[in-house]
Amino acid sequence: MSVTSLLTRKQVLFIIGVNAVISLVISLIVGLLLRPNQVASTPPPTKAAAATPGGAAVTPTGAPVIHVVVAGDTISGLALKYDVSAEDIIAANQLANPNFLTLGTELIIPVGGLPQITPTWTPQPTPTDTPIPFQPPSANQTATAMAEAGVTATGYPTQPPVTGEILVQITEIVAPGNADREAVVIVNKGKQVIDLQGWILSDGAEKIYTFPSFRLYAGGSVTVNTRIGVDGSNQLYLNKLTPIWSVGDTATLKDTTGKIVATLTVK
Which residue among 25, 129, 178, 229 has the highest number of C-beta atoms inside a 10 angstrom radius? Predict the structure, then answer.
């Protein structure tokens, strides 16, 4: 082996060692430069929501409450308990008869009031003219054809009489002083239909109820209840939680002109 060959190998090994050292230094420099960016880009940990003592969830203020009906519950009692109006409880649960609650029924108590519903506009389709496929016969042609066929026309039913003496009476005041049963019974003893719209029921001094559009037929009756309810064919409701009538009061019925039609004293 010659000296020249030996030196050449030493040089080669030296060069390899120098390259290794340079590569190591470069790797260290690059690692130091990249490490701060990695630390800075790491997102901070999110904090867990604080739990209430005992692990109970926090109910937001004004959220509806579900109440299970138990013995002795009434709408008025629930209204006082939850500080909510009785009308809101009835509306939230769409109660047809709020005076009768079934045990175990889940009622929505709208604490904070009923949600406001924003009406949405729905576009209506544009009506289009529909052509008539044939020419309808005239009234004279129709009458002639009916006569030839031996068919006689039937006239419209006669309307009930609208004249005559008005005989409307207050016949009874049921259970005065009991808000759940208290009621005034009014009877039409005449022969004509009476439209009670705008008539007033009072205690003689203070107006208690103004009748809506309501027809009282001959021989018919209507009961005006004090309690909360939904108006029907012969039942009207004042939607009150406390009684109105007491012994000595005089129930007075006036027509739209203010004329006294009927009276009855509570005994």
Answer: 229
- For domain 168-265, give the fold: Immunoglobulin-like (2.60.40)
Distance CA 139, CA 6 (A): 134
Through-space distance between the first and last CA atoms of the chain, rounded to whole angstroms: 144
Lowest mean pLDDT among 11-15, 86-90, 112-116, 132-136: 132-136
Report field, pTM of the whole predicted structure over 0.70: no
Is-contact 179 242, C-beta < 8 A? yes
240, 227 in Cβ contact below 8 A?
Answer: yes
pLDDT digits (tens, 9 = 90+) for 58-81: 344 567 899 999 998 999 999 999
Ordered by start, the domain boundaries in the chain are 61-109, 168-265
Under a CB-based contact definition with an 8 Å cutoff, are residues 230 and 266 in contact?
no
pLDDT tens digits for 110-163? 987 777 656 566 777 776 666 655 565 555 555 555 566 665 544 444 444 445
CATH topology for the 61-109 domain: Membrane-bound Lytic Murein Transglycosylase D; Chain A (3.10.350)
Q: CB 228: neighbour CB atoms within 10 A?
A: 21
Task: Say if CB 177 and CB 231 are below 8 A apart.
Answer: no
